[in-house]
Automatic annotation (TrEMBL):
Lineage: Bacteria, Pseudomonadati, Pseudomonadota, Gammaproteobacteria, Cellvibrionales
Record's protein name: 7-cyano-7-deazaguanine synthase
InterPro entries for the chain: QueC (IPR018317), Rossmann-like_a/b/a_fold (IPR014729)
Protein family membership: Belongs to the QueC family.
Entry annotated with the keyword DNA damage: no
Molecular function in Gene Ontology: ATP binding; ligase activity, forming carbon-nitrogen bonds; zinc ion binding
Binding site for Zn(2+): 189, 199, 202, 205
Length: 224
């Protein structure tokens, strides 16, 4: 029997790497999809390449976009500083429409591959206030995907899987550790050095560190 295929969005960070392991544990052949979208640093792309290779995915594709042309985020505009203190509301690290764009390309690739399954590591517990990480967004996108594609029109149900949506960062770390994820290969920091060393101060670093602490597991993250 042919193994079922899944497109998994992979950033090189802790969450998406855990999702790769979870999809593989469910019997999917993983086609990893990353984006070189003009983000502040390339360390996460190098991490995505490392993890994809280590986890023996079927294919790892990197799509080039240039979201710097619209800016509007600390991750795509060097004139906007990455905050190192907690803030209320939607943070400046939110990249406008990023998950909408990424999922659209994932949807196209899934159709080409004959896959009906897309995995994304969005999280509604430790989601940092990003509107495109909410369950409502995913449900709406899945409904749209089944209206907008050949597969959907032909009655083959496309699914957007969000296995981390209700998990705390500690739960994610525990689950990934159980599945053998090597978190030393991952980079989560919004302003990592070229070598991948984390700042330890940004929102993503704080959530990651707190997750390991709450899970009672050692954090092998290298900090600058």
């Amino acid at each position: 029997m042919t193994q079922k295929r899944a497109v998994v969005l992979v950033s090189g960070g802790l969450d998406s790497t855990t999702v790769v392991a979870m999809a593989q544990a469910q019997g999917y052949e993983v086609y990893a999809l990353s984006f070189d979208y003009g983000q502040r640093h390339r360390a996460e792309l190098h991490a995505a390449e490392r993890t994809a290779k280590a986890m023996k995915v079927a294919m790892h594709k990197v799509v080039q976009l240039d979201l710097r042309t619209i800016g509007g985020s600390a991750l795509t505009d060097n004139d906007i500083d990455v905050p190192e203190q907690e803030s209320e509301g939607i943070p400046v690290t939110y990249v406008p429409a990023r998950n909408t764009v990424f999922l659209s390309i994932a949807l196209g690739w899934a159709e080409v591959l004959g896959s009906l399954d897309i995995f994304i590591g969005v999280n509604a517990v430790d989601y940092s206030g990003y509107p495109d990480c909410r369950p409502e967004f995913i449900a709406a996108y899945e409904a749209m995907a089944n209206l907008a594609t050949k597969a959907g029109v032909e009655g083959r149900q496309l699914r957007i899987h969000t296995p981390l949506i209700d998990l705390s960062k500690a739960d994610i770390v525990k689950r990934g550790t159980e599945l053998g994820v090597d978190y030393r290969l991952t980079v989560s920091c919004y302003q990592a050095t070229e070598s991948g060393a984390a700042c330890g101060k940004c929102d993503s670093c704080r959530l990651r560190r707190a997750g390991f602490e709450a899970a009672g597991l050692p954090d092998a993250t290298i900090y600058s």
